[in-house]
1-acyl-sn-glycerol-3-phosphate acyltransferase (Syntrophobacter fumaroxidans), 244 residues
Amino acid sequence: MKRIRSIFFHVLLFVDTIVLGLAAIACSKLDRTGNWSHLVARFWGNLNLRVAGVEVDVHGLERLRPERPCIYAANHQSLFDIFVVLGKLPVQFRWLAKEELFRLFVMGRAMKATGYIPINRSDHRKAFESINQAADKVRGGVSIVIFPEGTRSENGVLKDFKKGGFILAIKSQQPIVPISISGSHRVVPRKDKWVIHPGVVRMTIGDPIPTAGATTKERDLLIEEVREAIRRYLTTEEGGTATF
């Protein structure tokens, strides 16, 4: 049954990415802010969660301040983190995403149309330009989502954080909101990555961590504070301390 569901999921993922990607591009022509396109992306995230049989247990929504721009920093265990954040974080935001994704057919154009920001991780100068662009967006009122680990964890255990997203936060002088995603690595286990395992993923939104007045000299302290805030709501198996 899991293999049948998995085949159906992957076929639908291919189809709905094209169809909804085109819809997001069309919406961007009518709404230059990208807000309508983001709503299409949110529907895409929720649709794929539903088809995969993945439920999301969300905690900490009362900590959100949608009226204030911020940087949301989430750990990254699997592909499903993207669906979880898109579908279940009920605010407008844009992604800071690796440049390679913007080269994908339809999806890349949809991401660009929605206002997502590409970052070239192999070119330090271009990466710095992307961070400056993202900081300008945040200062202008747009929230950004980052995966500070840079890439997915192969076993669900929290990895070390990259520095770029924290330079972005310091440049923007806006708070970082930690997001802990627990259990998504079990949906697509490392040993059999194409088979989908339905289940429950827990997403916990932590307290905002201020960056007003912070300088780049305090970057490492900020990284450690955010990492610990994310760890707090991960299981011991994932490198955290939670016992739920």
Q: What stands out?
A: The helical segments are 2-30, 35-52, 80-88, 107-114, 124-139, 164-172, 219-231. The chain has a mean pLDDT of 93.
